[in-house]
Amino acid sequence: MYATPVDAYGRYEPVTLKNIHDHPGFRRIPEALRHEVEVAAQVLPFRTNPYVLDELIDWDAVPDDPIFQLVFPQRAMLEPEAFARVEAALAAGDRDALTREVWRVRRAMNPHPAGQLTHNVPELDGRRLAGLQHKYAETVLFFPAGGQTCHAFCTYCFRWAQFVGDRDLKFESNRVEDLVRYLRAHPEVTDVLVTGGDPMVMKTALLARYLEPLLEVETLRSIRIGSKSLAYWPMRFTTDPDAAELLRLFERVVARGKQLAFMAHFSHPRELETGPVRAAIQNLLGADAVIRTQAPLVRHVNDDADVWAEKWRREVSLGLVPYYMFVERDTGPKRYFEVPLAEAQRIFAGAYRQVSGLARTVRGPSMSAFPGKVRIVGTAEVAGEKVFVLEFLQARDPSWVGRPFFARYSETATWLDELEPAFGAARFFYEA
Ligand code: SF4
Fold this sequence. Notes:
The chain is α/β, with parallel strands linked by helices. It has 14 helices and 13 strands. The protein has helices at about 25-30, 30-45, 50-55, 65-70, 80-90, 95-105, 175-185, 205-210, 230, 245-255, 275-285, 305-315, 335, 340-350; strands spanning about 125, 125-130, 130-135, 140, 190-195, 220-225, 260-265, 290-295, 320-325, 365-370, 370-380, 385-395, 405-410. Strands 3-4-5-6-7-8-9-10-11-12-13 form an 11-stranded mixed β-sheet. Helix 2 (about 30-45) crosses helix 5, helix 5 (about 80-90) runs antiparallel to helix 6 and helix 8 (about 205-210) packs parallel to helix 10. The radius of gyration is 22 Å and the shape is globular. The chain binds iron/sulfur cluster. The site of iron/sulfur cluster has 10 residues, from loops.
């Protein structure tokens, strides 16, 4: 039997700039902070909901509260001069000038890091399949058109460009038939990652239209769903009107011999504490889904080894599998959230040391960079030189995986392209 706890939140209704001022917690914070949110949210997508506001945010701890940081755009997320320009345009009440300023700032924020819009788009019969990405041999990403929003937005989102209403920046597909034909032409693909945005914003009937044709593809072994709905709207799996139907859909996937791998995005242990999330996890596991967890390491939200250790411990005790700690990508308000690679590695190691073997399924810190997923294994002193030891967990060329390589140690580098090869080499081995 699935858990159906008391329906405390009713139907999902987003909270945006239009109605956030009605929320009692938000009304309590200083006027100046509310104004800053209003300005920053002209640029960065802002959307949340009553569950996040009432269950996850500690309003007494605002603005430092990690979940407040996670969902509320802030002044320091924009460059001071960009903030001032947007603020002035907003105060002047000139919509056109405001739109121009907002887009000027957005375009400077690297909307599509690691070539995600232009690279890895597969072709079939000479036609580019928009809304699909095929970077690693065994996995194809599919961006269903109905799933390109979220129950709440993260301020650090690397897919923020999906939410700002510009068709040129967006990738999505309505054509599951293209995906099926592509999979039949590429039997090496064993996994499809359905992602967004968040596919769980779709009604079950719509999600089924995307998933059911995939069940006919024999070479496909896993359907992964990338989602933050367990953290942001767990009622999707309990009291939403079509929650039971959703769980039955997942059961059908498993009954057809495919793994339903739910890739859950949890940024902070607090997201795992509430009654609704626990009931939702129980229901998903009851539908035979496997839940793996992942999140980026970001300043102001989870830049602390104890926070990660606690998160992984709670995940394991709830039956989840810790999977990835990511390095924040080079996009959006990167400067506000970034943690240097050296510090990221120390945080990862500090957390990893604290947890039992059951939580050591986690891998990181990992950069989803252009050539592949690169993990910082650690630091070492080799022949008198301090170096980072790195490895590919995934790579454009599968032969690169698992081959250690070395970069000169840096206390400040925050991404792969800021690293230099160690031992005087002119380039890394994977650079032709
Ligand atoms: S849930 Fe995922 S896709 Fe949605 S805003 Fe957060 S990071 Fe971005």
